[in-house]
Amino acid sequence: MYKVLIIEDDPMIGDMISMYLGEEGFEVIRMETGQKGIEAVKPFAPDVILLDLMLPDMDGLELCRQVRTTLSVPIMIVSMRNKVVERVAALGAGADDYMCKPFSMHEMSARVHALIRRSNLYQNAGDNMRMNQAVRHDTKPETDEALLGDKNKITLDLQTRSMIVQGQLVETTYSEFEIMKCFVNHPGRVYTREDLLQTVRGFDSYVTDRAIDVHIANLRKKIEDNPKEPRRIRTVWGVGYKFVY
Predict the structure, then answer these.
(1) Which residues are in the OmpR/PhoB-type domain (predicted)?
(2) Which DSSP symbol is given to 141?
(3) Is 160's pLDDT higher than 60?
(4) Model confidence, pTM
């Protein structure tokens, strides 16, 4: 049984989500403050967190950042805030998805399932990678890969939707993986922001030019030796971005 931690101070919304997901077969607990939510994360070990941004004791973005520093559990923001800048800020803080209130319970459930499914794929990819490294160090994985120098290698596994950087599994959001797939498949090609928007639009219904910049910044943190002076994902001023070896 998958577990969902809801951090929501509105009793009507919180109870409604809890009841719906409970009927869907999830184990659900709800906390009404950010502090109680943080304290519940480790003992409850949720498979996904639904997080309101406007909590009585702390800002939801700060809570998101705190959780993300130590855990990779999927986080979906559920908030009345619907401005683009607020959704972008949530992505930058480490959220994996964002839903604006009011919303469809059916869509919310589908997104929760999608987040858990993707998280499990990452976990399985990491387990398989460690097993393969322990048994066959010289085996080349059947994946799309881009070699960066003699030692630096980025490997994308399309089946598990995982990215391995210098032998380490690095988690990405859905949109980040799709952008990275474009870069690895076509190194040197300049992608406009509109190109990348079309790549991720559909899953991330709120994606904007600014959100693309956030995804690029997050990817640089994950693959660059020095994100402030990127050598792999380069900005082409006035046009967009390109990936180089």
Answers:
(1) 143-245
(2) P
(3) yes
(4) 0.60
Q: Tell me the HSE value of 143 on the side-chain side, using a 13 A CA sphere.
A: 22
Spatial distance between the Cα atoms of 38 and 16, rounded to a whole number of angstroms: 22
Beta-carbon contacts of residue 190 (< 8 Å; ≥ 6 apart):
236, 239, 240, 241, 242
AA identity, residue 115: L
**242, two tokens:** 């390109």
* Tokens read off for 102: 């009011």
Q: What is the mean pLDDT of residues 172-197?
A: 87
pLDDT at 12 over 80: yes
CA-CA-CA-CA torsion sign (231, 235, 237, 240): positive
Distance from C-alpha of 42 to C-alpha of 71, rounded to nearest angstrom = 9
Count of residues making up the chain: 245
- Given a cut of 60, whether residue 141 has pLDDT beyond it is no
What does each C-alpha distance from 176 to 81, 133, 204, 212, 214 come to in angstroms? Answer: 23, 25, 11, 9, 10
The residue that leads in pLDDT, 185 or 204, is 185
Is 45 a residue whose pLDDT tops 50?
A: yes
CA distances from 128 to 31, 137, 162, 177 (A): 35, 13, 11, 19
Name the residue among 34, 50, 45, 64 with its Cα closest to residue 3.
Answer: 45
End-to-end CA distance of the chain: 43
